[in-house]
Design goal:
The structure is a single chain. By secondary structure, the protein is α/β, with parallel strands linked by helices. Helices cover 43% and strands 14% of the residues. The protein contains 7 helices and 6 strands. It has helices at residues 2-8, 22-27, 51-62, 75-85, 99-108, 122-131, 148-166; strands spanning 12-14, 32-35, 66-70, 88-90, 115-119, 135-139. A 6-stranded parallel beta sheet has the order 1-6-5-2-3-4, sandwiched between helices. It is globular. It starts with a helix and ends in a 9-residue tail after the last helix. InterPro entries: HAD-like_sf (IPR036412), HAD-SF_hydro_IA (IPR006439), HAD-SF_hydro_IIIA (IPR006549), HAD_sf (IPR023214), PGPP1/Gep4 (IPR010021). Pfam families: Hydrolase (PF00702). It comes from Staphylococcus caprae.
Length: 175
């Protein structure tokens, strides 16, 4: 189970991006955040960033942290959402494959050790980040509804989360 834990266990597990202490990340040397979009920042059906998300991105920028949105979704979706935030993005990222993570780190002109990955899916965001040696933060999905492939991923994810909870690796409980 050690390999499974190393690949699928996030470094941190929080309710939402708003619970992430960006000041602490900055003081610990984080210079870049790779974040998922759908069900991480907003619901998959929300077209534009909310005011609260805009403030979160502004806070990161003010602290010297560059944020890149890395999503498996299509160009139109990711591009239109990212435009208002004035951030770089990678669409059709094919997470958990490593190419998009490496590309984002290169675009931000930082090192892997200065990078945090934030996402709502263990099998794409956390697994992809962990495989690339990045610090991973998993958030509870913003919405309870998902597409077909994500529904399948969530079944596996629930089993892994339950196992990690039973072992005492994850202390946080979902509502």
């Amino acid at each position: 189970m050690g390999i499974v834990k190393n690949l699928f266990m996030p470094n941190a597990y929080v309710q939402s991006v708003f619970e992430i202490d960006i000041e602490k990340l900055a003081s610990n040397g984080v210079k870049g955040i790779i974040t998922d979009l759908d069900n991480t920042l907003v619901g998959w059906d929300v077209k534009e960033p909310t005011e609260r998300i805009k403030e979160w991105f502004a806070k990161a920028r003010k602290l010297g942290i560059t944020v890149t949105i890395v999503s498996n979704n299509n160009e139109e979706r990711v591009s239109s959402f990212s435009k208002d935030l004035e951030v770089d993005f990678i669409f059709k990222a094919r997470k958990p494959m490593g190419k998009a993570f490496k590309k984002a780190i290169k675009q931000m002109n930082i090192q892997a050790k200065e990078t945090v990955v934030i996402g709502d899916q263990m099998l794409t965001d956390v697994f992809g980040g962990n495989r690339n040696g990045l610090y991973t933060i998993m958030v509870v999905p913003v919405k309870r509804t998902d597409g077909f492939i994500t529904k399948f991923n969530r079944l596996i994810e629930r089993r892994l989360l339950n196992h990690f909870r039973k072992k005492g690796y994850i202390k946080w409980e979902e509502n």
